[in-house]
TrEMBL record:
Reversibly transfers an adenylyl group from ATP to 4'-phosphopantetheine, yielding dephospho-CoA (dPCoA) and pyrophosphate. Pfam families: CTP_transf_like. It comes from Psychromicrobium lacuslunae. It is an enzyme of class 2 (transferase). This is Phosphopantetheine adenylyltransferase. Its main location: cytoplasm. It catalyses: (R)-4'-phosphopantetheine + ATP + H(+) = 3'-dephospho-CoA + diphosphate. The lineage of its organism: Bacteria, Bacillati, Actinomycetota, Actinomycetes, Micrococcales. It comes from the Bacteria. GO terms for biological process: coenzyme A biosynthetic process. Homohexamer. One of its GO terms (cellular component) is cytoplasm. Its cofactor is Mg(2+). Residues 5-133 form the Cytidyltransferase-like domain.
């Protein structure tokens, strides 16, 4: 079985994430969507909410496992889960410049490869930060996020 890990904080999950995960699911037998938490970061949604949104949004895809990643090295997590690769989406050359050193370190630490998938052009501008900012200011993000994510963002605005 070819198992890969698609890691991220997914705060919130957006259509660019979904597109990369769906493409990974078409290439590999199992995709573990590893929802991470960095305790030095402030999140809009709790880990539980991010896991729920991922479950709702990815329910129709086969071969998807969604779980919290916990603390520790991604390379070690991949080794523990029997994953042969990490899948990352790239939007720009700055993403590439950021991701390549991490990919090299992960390969050196545990032999896990990183597979980069270029984002679809319609999602090149998307980031979770931008989604949070636009939504927080009352903008319509319905074209950029799954319905369940949009509902939760709207609930936050009314609180």
């Amino acid at each position: 079985m070819r198992r890969v890990v698609c890691p991220g904080s997914f705060d919130p999950l957006h259509n660019g994430h979904l597109e990369v995960i769906a493409r990974a699911a078409s290439l590999f037998d199992e995709v573990i969507v590893a929802v991470s938490t960095n305790y030095s970061k402030k999140y809009l949604f709790s880990l539980e909410q991010r896991l729920e949104m991922a479950q709702e949004s990815l329910a129709a895809l086969r071969g998807i496992v969604i779980e919290p990643m916990g603390q520790g090295l991604l390379a070690e997590y991949c080794h523990q889960r029997g994953a042969s690769a990490i899948v990352k989406g790239l939007r720009s050359s700055s993403d590439f410049d950021y991701e390549v050193p991490m990919a090299t370190m992960n390969r050196q630490l545990s032999g896990v490869e990183t597979v980069f998938l270029a984002a679809e052009s319609r999602y090149l501008h998307l980031s979770s930060t931008m989604i949070k900012e636009v939504s927080g200011l009352g903008g319509d993000v319905s074209d950029y996020v799954p319905r369940g994510v949009q509902r939760r963002l709207a609930e936050l605005r009314t609180q």
